[in-house]
Design brief:
By secondary structure, this protein is mainly alpha-helical. It contains 14 helices and no strands.
C-alpha cells in the first residue's frame, strides 16, 4: 500500500498538459474571445440603434438573464445529453446568433439576438469547468482549473478594448463577424476531445438540481463567499471608469482594469498549484482580505488606484480557483455539472446584481461610499470562511438534495 506522501508525489507527476486538456483550454479561449469582444460593443450598438443608455443597460441585463437561466438548467441537461453534445450546442448558440446583429436594426431585435447568445454562454461556461475536472488527473485538478482560468482570463484582459477599437476603425460588421466565428471554431475542436463518461451515469434520476444543491450547507457557504466577491467585481468593471477622473497611462481606469485582469489571472494560476499541494480553504481568508482592501483603495486614484486594482485582482484570482476546487470537491463524481453550475451562477448573478444594486447606491451616496460598502460586503464573507470546514462528498443517498 502506498504511503500518502508517495501517492501525492505520483499524482504530481501525472501529465497535466494532455491533448484533451489543451484542446478544452483552446475551446474556452475561443469562446471567451467572442464573448469579450462583443461585451462592450453590443451595449454601444443598442445605444446607437436608438435605445439610449437604458437600451444599453437592457442589452447587458438580457444577456445575464438568459445566461443564468441556462446555467440553472445544466445539472439535469448534462446528465441527459453528455458533455460534448451540450458544449457544441452552447458554442453554436454563442456564435451563430452574432451574425444577425448586423441586420438587427431595432432594440428589440438586438435584445432577441442577445438572449440567444446568453443561453450559449451559460451552457458553455458550466461545461468548461465540469469537463476540465473530468479530463484532468485527480491530483492536479486545481492546476487544470488554473489553466482554464488563464484561458478565460486572457480575452478578458484585452478583448473588451480591442472590440471598441475595431468598431472605431472598421465598423460594427467586422466585430460581429469575429465575435461569431471565434466560438464556432471551437466546435471543430470538440471532435478532438476523447470520449468522457456521461455525468450521472449511475442513477441519473437522483442527480440534484440547482436549488437542491443550494440546500446543502457546505455548497451554500462557498456559493455565498464567491458571490460576495463577484458582486464587488461587477461594481468595479461597471463603475470604475465613471468613478475615476480621466487620466493617462496606468493611473487611468483602463490601466487599473488591465492591472486587475493580469493580477487575477496570475492569482488564479498560482492558486491552482497551491490548492493541489495544500488545502484550498487556506486561500479563502487571504483572498477575501485582499479583495476587501483593494476595494477600499480603488476610489482614491493615483498609485492607490493601481495598488487597489492589483490587490483586488490577486484576491479575486485566489478565490476564483479556490472556490471552484472546493465546490467540485463537495459534490460526487456524478455531480460535477452541479458544482460548475453553482459556481458559474455565483459568478454571473453576483456580477449582474452588483452592477444593479450598487448603481442605486451610487445614485444616493456617490461612488466612494458604494465602493466602501462593497468592501464591507466582501469582508462580511470572512465570517463564512472562518466557519467553513472540510465537508464529505455528497453520498448517493443525498443526491436528490431534498
Amino acid at each position: 500500500m502506498k504511503r500518502p506522501k508517495e501517492t501525492a508525489v505520483a499524482s504530481e507527476r501525472e501529465t497535466l498538459l494532455t491533448r484533451p486538456v489543451i484542446l478544452l483550454a483552446l475551446i474556452a479561449f475561443a469562446a471567451l474571445f467572442g464573448f469579450q469582444l462583443l461585451l462592450s460593443v453590443v451595449p454601444l450598438y443598442a445605444d446607437d440603434a436608438g435605445g439610449g443608455s437604458s437600451g444599453a443597460g437592457l442589452a447587458t441585463a438580457a444577456f445575464m438573464l438568459s445566461t443564468v437561466f441556462a446555467q440553472v438548467q445544466m445539472p439535469r441537461v448534462l446528465v441527459r445529453f453528455g458533455y460534448r453534445v451540450i458544449l457544441a450546442v452552447g458554442l453554436l448558440f454563442l456564435g451563430l446568433p452574432a451574425f444577425f446583429y448586423a441586420v438587427a436594426q431595432t432594440l428589440m431585435a438586438i435584445l432577441a439576438v442577445t438572449l440567444l447568445r446568453g443561453v450559449g454562454f451559460g451552457i458553455a461556461t458550466v461545461v468548461f469547468a465540469a469537463l476540465m475536472v473530468e479530463l484532468a488527473p485527480p491530483g492536479r485538478r486545481g492546476e487544470a482549473l488554473g489553466l482554464l482560468g488563464v484561458a478565460i482570463a486572457l480575452p478578458a484582459i484585452f478583448c473588451t478594448a480591442l472590440g471598441l477599437w475595431l468598431v472605431e476603425r472598421f465598423g460594427y460588421g467586422t466585430v460581429f463577424l469575429l465575435g461569431a466565428i471565434a466560438p464556432l471554431l471551437g466546435i471543430a475542436a470538440i471532435l478532438g476531445l476523447r470520449a468522457v463518461p456521461t455525468p450521472g451515469r449511475e442513477g441519473a434520476e437522483r442527480t440534484a438540481g440547482f436549488f437542491a444543491g443550494l440546500g446543502r450547507g457546505p455548497l451554500l457557504r462557498v456559493f455565498l463567499i464567491f458571490a460576495a466577491t463577484t458582486t464587488a467585481a461587477g461594481v468595479i468593471v461597471t463603475f470604475l471608469p465613471l468613478a475615476v477622473a480621466s487620466g493617462s497611462g496606468v493611473f487611468s481606469a483602463a490601466g487599473a482594469l488591465l492591472v486587475m485582469g493580469v493580477a487575477s489571472a496570475a492569482g488564479r494560476w498560482w492558486a491552482g498549484h497551491f490548492g493541489d499541494r495544500r488545502d484550498p480553504r487556506l486561500l479563502l481568508l487571504p483572498g477575501l482580505l485582499a479583495a476587501a482592501l483593494g476595494m477600499v483603495a480603488l476610489p482614491s486614484g493615483g498609485a492607490l488606484l493601481v495598488g487597489g486594482a492589483a490587490l483586488f485582482g490577486i484576491g479575486f484570482g485566489l478565490l476564483q480557483n479556490a472556490t471552484l476546487v472546493l465546490m467540485m470537491g463537495r459534490v460526487s463524481e456524478n455531480e460535477y455539472g452541479l458544482g460548475s453550475t453553482l459556481w458559474n451562477v455565483a459568478f454571473d448573478a453576483g456580477t449582474g446584481l452588483g452592477a444593479f444594486v450598487f448603481g442605486l447606491v451610487i445614485a444616493t451616496f456617490g461612488y466612494s461610499w458604494a465602493f466602501y460598502l462593497c468592501a464591507g460586503l466582501v469582508a462580511s464573507a470572512l465570517v463564512l470562511a472562518r466557519l467553513d470546514h472540510p465537508a464529505p462528498v455528497a453520498s448517493r443517498s443525498t443526491k436528490d438534495g431534498g
